[in-house]
Amino acid sequence: DARVTQTPRHKVTEMGQEVTMRCQPILGHNTVFWYRQTMMQGLELLAYFRNRAPLDDSGMPKDRFSAEMPDATLATLKIQPSEPRDSAVYFCASVLSHLNTEAFFGQGTRLTVV
Amino acid sequence: DQQVKQNSPSLSVQEGRISILNCDYTNSMFDYFLWYKKYPAEGPTFLISISSIKDKNEDGRFTVFLNKSAKHLSLHIVPSQPGDSAVYFCAASGKGGSEKLVFGKGTKLTVNP
């Protein structure tokens, strides 16, 4: 049963703390996306990688967010320091990047910064 | 600057009737379009897609129509069922789907029994 796995599912943290969210893409998928869902903005693209190389991270606040793919089976999204406005659901998605395929999403990490 | 727009935040229909969800895009480089469905506390799941070389794609009760000249697509659900109640996201990509997916803000569909 191939699926995208995200951990943790829920995270409550205090303002100023570091938060790390993890994603295991579907085995063999070469493109990984990080999205953030908020009521106001819907699904915003934060960053995406192809073959572990970052292609676009223009959606991320550069001063506090960072995204990496240490290896093909792990993508991380880090926020340091976290702020209350970062509270949202963060989704990871992966796709095998060729014509006419769809991205598969994980169940998300619900982040609450108090 | 929103490149993919879903102007109706919500839609309510009766069971058995047709649901029509609309989506507009501004970037003429988009050539691959998808609809995702999202239930609460779950990730979005793929529903149906269409390439810009087509104007219609059908899968069971779901049909997507693409009007390239108007930069408009729509999702039709016939007949609508209560289990279809969810948030529907329209998404677009370039280069046949190999570029990043850009999403609209979603439309919450409620199908009343």
Oligomer description = heterodimer
Counting DSSP H or I runs of 4 or more residues, the number of helices of chain B is: 0
What overall form of chain B do the CA principal axes indicate?
globular
Can you summarize the main beta sheet of chain B?
6 strands, mixed
The secondary structure category of chain B is mainly beta
The radius of gyration of chain A is 13 Å
Give the total of beta strands of chain A: 11
Q: What helical percentage do the residues of chain A reach?
A: under 10%
Instruction: Indicate the proportion of strand residues of chain B.
Output: over 45%
| Main sheet overview of chain A | 7 strands, mixed
Give the helices and strands of chain B as they follow along the chain: EEEEEEEEEEE
How much helical structure, as a percent, in the residues of chain B? under 10%
Q: Could you walk me through the main structural features you see in this protein, from its secondary elements to its overall organization?
A:
The complex is a heterodimer of chains A (114) and B (113). Chain A has 114 residues and is mostly beta strands. The model of chain A has no long low-confidence stretch (mean pLDDT 92). In chain A, the strands form two sheets. In chain A, strands 2, 4, 5, 6, 9, 10 and 11 form a seven-stranded mixed β-sheet that branches. A four-stranded antiparallel β-sheet of chain A has the order 1-3-8-7, with no helix packed on it. Helices cover 0% and strands 54% of the residues of chain A. Chain A starts with a strand and ends with a strand. Chain B is mainly β and 113 residues long. Helices cover 0% and strands 56% of the residues of chain B. Chain B has no helices and eleven strands. Chain B has strands at 4-5, 10-14, 19-25, 30-38, 45-51, 56-59, 62-67, 72-77, 86-94, 102-103, 107-112. Chain B starts with a strand and ends with a strand. The interface between A and B is medium-sized, with 25 and 23 residues.
